Sequence to fold (210 residues):
Amino acid sequence: MDPFNQPEQQASTVPSPTPSIDYLNQIAPQTPKRFRLTHMQLIIVVALAIVTIIVLAVVIGAFNNKDPLEHLSAKLQSTEIVVGDAQSKIKSTQLRALNSNLKIYLTNTNRDIAPLLLQDSVNVAKLDKNIVASEATNDITDRLEDARLNAIYDRTYAREIAYRLETTLALMHQINDSSASKDLKTFLIAAIANLEPTQQSFADFNATNG
Fold:
């Protein structure tokens, strides 16, 4: 036996040290821990989500409800101007009396609704310019002037106002159905009840004289 080869043989027969379990655990990929809410935390999160949704709904609802209120105010104001301008041009005694009563109604309604609209942040003296323009009566004024020149003013005026009041009533009903203001709803119910017979009278006059 060659004595020079013994150390090499002994070295080759020595077993490699086995890695410990702790070491293997340290180098093994760590599974990320899942974040789990406790029952109480889950209840709090859901409650906060519900409150947030409710607040957003109220804010959006209030914002969306402002437009109809401004449209109503602009429509009432512009209609009052047309009605006042027409009084001296109407020939029929019946229609003139009907128009005079409408003028009084519109004057009082514009005055009394102003503080109620202000509660919903609508200042009747500072309405949105686009809304005011959309409720302007330039087209009505033009048609009435043509009717005056053609001696058919009364029945044309009755037709125009009947339709104008019909759209006003529809807007009042819409606001009354969606408003959360008790005072405004009470006002609108009375305003609708007073305006409906007048609107019908204008429509009947147009039908009789059309």
The domain at 67-209 is CATH 1.20.1260.10 (Ferritin). The mean pLDDT is 83. The helical segments are 6-13, 21-27, 39-86, 93-118, 129-134, 138-149, 153-178, 182-209. The chain has eight helices and no strands.
